[in-house]
Amino acid sequence: MHRLRTTFIRLWPLTTPQIAQNPAQNRLWVPGGHLGTFHVVRHLNAPVAAEPFLNGTSSNYVEEMYQTWLENPSKVHKSWDTFFRNANAGAPPGAAYQSPPPLNGVSEGLTGVQDLLGAQLDVEKLVKDHLAVQALIRDYQVRGHHLAKLDPLGIGCVDFDDTPCSVGFQNVGLYGLADSDLDRVFRLPTTTFIGGNESALTLREIIHRLETAYCQHIGVEFMFINDVEQCKWIRQKFETPGIMQFSLEEKKTLLARMIRSTRFEEFLQRKWSSEKRFGLEGCEALIPALKTIIDKSSQSGVESVIMGMPHRGRLNVLANVIRKDLDQIFCQFDSKLEAADEGSGDVKYHLGMYHRRINRVSDRYVTMSLMANPSHLEAVDPVVQGKTKAEQFYSGDTEGKKAMSILLHGDAAFAGQGIVYETFHLSDLPSYTTHGTIHVVVNNQIGFTTDPRMARSSPYPTDVARVVNAPIFHVNADDPEAVMYVCSVAAEWRNTFHKDVVIDLVCYRRNGHNEMDEPMFTQPLMYKQIKKQNKVLQTFADKLIAEGVVTTQDYEEEVVRYDKICEEAYVRSKDEKILHIKHWLDSPWPGFFTLEGQPKSMSCPSTGISEDELSHIGNIAASVPVQDFSAHGGISRILKGRANMVSQRVCDWALSEYMAFGSLLKEGVHVRLSGQDVERGTFSHRHHVLHDQNVDKRTCIPMNHMSPDQAPYTVCNSSLSEYGVLGFELGFAMASPNALVLWEAQFGDFHNTAQCILDQFISSGQAKWVRQNGIVLLLPHGMEGMGPEHSSARPERFLQMCNDDPDVFPTFSEDFATHQLHDCNWIVVNCSTPANYFHVLRRQILLPFRKPLIVFTPKSLLRHPEAKSSFDDMLPGTHFLRLIPEDGPAAVSPEEVKRVIFCTGKIYYELIRERKNRGLDKAVAVVRVEQLSPFPFDLVKAETDRYLNAELVWCQEEHKNQGYYDYVKPRLRTTIGRTRPIRYAGREPAAAPATGNKHTHLMELQRLLDTAFGVDGSSGKL
Ligand SMILES: Cc1ncc(C[n+]2csc(CCOP(=O)(O)OP(=O)(O)O)c2C)c(N)n1
Ligand SMILES: [Mg+2]
């Protein structure tokens, strides 16, 4: 816990108690212990418990002694010589040790004992001291970062819970060493690289080198990593003497980048002093940091970098990393500029960008995209990962060598937002890994007005990354060279291990949260210190001038040069009269739209497919297309059932989905279905992945065995995170319009843990950022008497966010339906037939533009005997039915119909059963609205016109304040010009979506059906 903001950072030796407090235990080993039977092979194999002193590390020491003795017995102490000689001669346990011969000529008996004890103590001390040195080295590796000078302000807000400080020259006593040992030479263990070419150093030098490696401006946190090789790799990168060196050229480039970063903010401040821009002042090193990562990654073959970042320093990153034209950035500050694009647009520090350019260091092309993002901190993280995965997937980059992601974070957000953790947990899952993300935290030690001690319970903001064994490099951001070094190590780490890594740029925020905020209200002392803080550019320039890397004149000229670039761009920006949000697109789809960015047509072809295709895909769905595969008996029955359906030319829900996916795959469209337990299907209806019952992990995905030139099908059970996985799939769908990307919620109500992705990206993304997205959400929905959870996918919420006007009756034109789809923000459907589900999925791809599709999917209908569709409804010429009119006796004599019940989804089946039971087939027409939004005004009007004498009812199984009623009612009224009342048949308003009592559920159902068929209208409610 953080008790106080402290400047004391502490260490505690891991093995001190054993070494210093229990010498008796250490003494056991030489005279009578197991070492008496020392034999290299045997002791290496012996369990540690059988060797009181020989643990994994001390055995190294004895082994080293033994090897040295083998080479030359005179190189080891006489006592070791005697010991090894006796042990090798086969001395029995405990008898190998003998004291060295007496050096003086005194009385044999007594001196023999004294010598024996003296020599024993010598060896004991030698081993003990070496173990102590080893413990000390290890402590530096584990906790050296506690002592590193990370905070440029020197106020240190990392609290390690009052653990006593131990390392350092003054603390060797804690390890059982004395000041007099500082000049003794110790052999170095194999677990350190501080020796360079030397294998032994004085204790003083050992401590000095460890301090250099671990306690200066870089703090390395890595010893929690399970992989020994990875730990070793990091030790080598930071311990090797003199490893942090830069060429003159590198230093000059670093200075030039610091100049750009610093002067950009100063320029904005001069020109627009009263505008919010969330400047980077206090963390100017971020720009060279990112550029170093990109340079190094490009050198190792990366061609595409996808970045996500919050507000802080975003304009600077756009200008100096992505290299967006400065005039395009500056014109965003002109509030009078007119927007050329439809939609709301967004503030300048949320917009995205895409740019391809030559990297000067690697001399290779790199495409960089910065994803547009909402204000919601960290929400973009999974989206970036999804897009990166998609780029890797489409370019066959199975190891992440060509495309990579960089995520930037604020310290408060990184620690506080759960999506960070959820995204980390995608990092090593086969269908979600992007093979290593480089995370950069702008750790300005504050979140808006909140101190870290109030904002997190972990010492560092980066502790969340430890769950995936990501190394964490803390670095003082006022030292640009140290920053550059950790960034190049991080890039190398990713390129070597393809795993996540975190760079924690410990810095400060020179201004308030934004440039208008007064930080002294809440952090007076911190800001007094900040005001005293020298500007990092000046300090760094002075250092390079002193080193002779540049002259004062060089430096000043470089500053003038960049200021001139800014001034010229500023002048050009004045010529901009129109703001094109399209220029800020982060994911262009070349060739999909016209050059003007419009859809290439405004019609949608038939979504049906040929009988042959239906049979072929159906047969694949009914088979196990690999040899010697033992499928489960239940699966065999399901496959047989599918074969029967194919022979009868009908589809149930699962088979129609198969038909949609299979046909798109055969047309070369990638299909990716992701979500919890989607491979089998929560309701055990899908079974897209078959498991061999006899061979562990042997699976078969029949959908991938359809034809040699088909697109690949990805179906993947996801981690249990809706927010992370939905964001990821949204990002995946962003990369290409030529893919059907679907996310299925386990039950529809679970989508609300991903509400941020729905609100900030899916429903409003196009309006804000002019980019389209065709993601499909499958949300199981329906009142089945299963209680308040698992029943409702909350249709009311999706419908409430639709942008079509309830009060305006549209003018119909040719292709009205497609135009309507084009203008909407998302499509909401509830299909009542498998064929319609098939069509709506295929329509997603055959439309000439992309819109998110929300599908309320059924549960009981999956196995409902009547919820089947004939192949006839899926053949060429057929298409998705936005509305399914009555086709029974009532439709024959519409003038005799007393009541028209409009409904959607599975209640249709309850209604027609009830109608039949009541003998009302002629009197009541039931009309299904399959596409709720955009509302099919044209088709609804045709129905209301047909049944002119009928009362109109909206029937739903959901409660009145939920479901579709509030959305449908005004639109129905607008359709009929308010000439007839719209009656309501459904459940009463309620707080919970459904009752937990089965009996009540059935009573409610019966009551709503009674209301629906109250033909005289008396029981219908307005
Ligand atoms: C999910 C969410 N909650 C709250 C906010 C409001 N907010 C904007 S910036 C900010 C502070 C962020 O602090 P930090 O992550 O340290 O970034 P910094 O501004 O210090 O760079 C807050 C709370 C937000 N944007 N998103
Ligand atoms: Mg912060």
From TrEMBL:
This protein's GO CC annotations: mitochondrion; nucleus; oxoglutarate dehydrogenase complex
Domain of life: Eukaryota
InterPro entries listed in its UniProt record: 2-oxogl_dehyd_N (IPR032106), 2oxoglutarate_DH_E1 (IPR011603), DH_E1 (IPR001017), KGD_C_sf (IPR042179), ODO-1/KGD_C (IPR031717), THDP-binding (IPR029061), Transketolase-like_Pyr-bd (IPR005475)
Keyword entries, A-Z: Calcium, Glycolysis, Isopeptide bond, Magnesium, Metal-binding, Mitochondrion, Nucleus, Oxidoreductase, Thiamine pyrophosphate, Transit peptide, Ubl conjugation
Entries under SMART domains matching the protein: Transket_pyr
One Gene Ontology term of the molecular function aspect: oxoglutarate dehydrogenase (succinyl-transferring) activity
Family: Belongs to the alpha-ketoglutarate dehydrogenase family.
Entry protein name: 2-oxoglutarate dehydrogenase complex component E1
Gene giving rise to this polypeptide: LOC106530900
